[in-house]
Amino acid sequence: MSIRALIFDCDGTLTDSMQAHFVAWRDAVAPFGMTLDEQRFYTFSGTPSRRVIPKLAAEQGIELDFETANLAKEEAFLESVHLLKPIDPVIEIARQHRGQLPMAVASGGVRRIVVRQLEHVDIYDWFDTIVTAEDTERHKPDPDVFLEAANRLNVPPEMCRVYEDGE
Description:
Elements: E1 5-8, E2 15-16, H1 18-29, H2 38-42, H3 49-59, H4 66-79, E3 85-86, H5 88-97, E4 103-106, H6 111-120, E5 129-131, H7 144-153, E6 160-163
Parallel strand pairs: 1-4, 1-6, 4-5
Antiparallel strand pairs: 2-3
């Protein structure tokens, strides 16, 4: 069976952004009295913050307004987007297949953050579609963003190759 489309995660796959996300979240939740363990945070790679942060807060017995913390985190992240770097081996795969195969980005992140990252590393226009947390009801580790990307590319999921850094 030949591969007919490529689907890429963004954070940790196309862009080296996890440290920036961690620092932005750590600083955003500190005013609520919450601490964020870096190694534990990374175990949730690819899972939307809407699921991760409330879970970690509940474990610490901290009540936080997720929307307020999320807005602060997004702003902090966007202010540091210039620090992001492309993950060159994966970018090279996309470059080699650009115009040859349909390609999508499927991310657990929110659209404005994902788009800004792709713009920063100058690859935004390489993809036929971008699927983010706003586009599916279930999120990673569920496969819904990948299945939606395959659907939008009009390619059966089993004929897509996915590049992802999470399990």
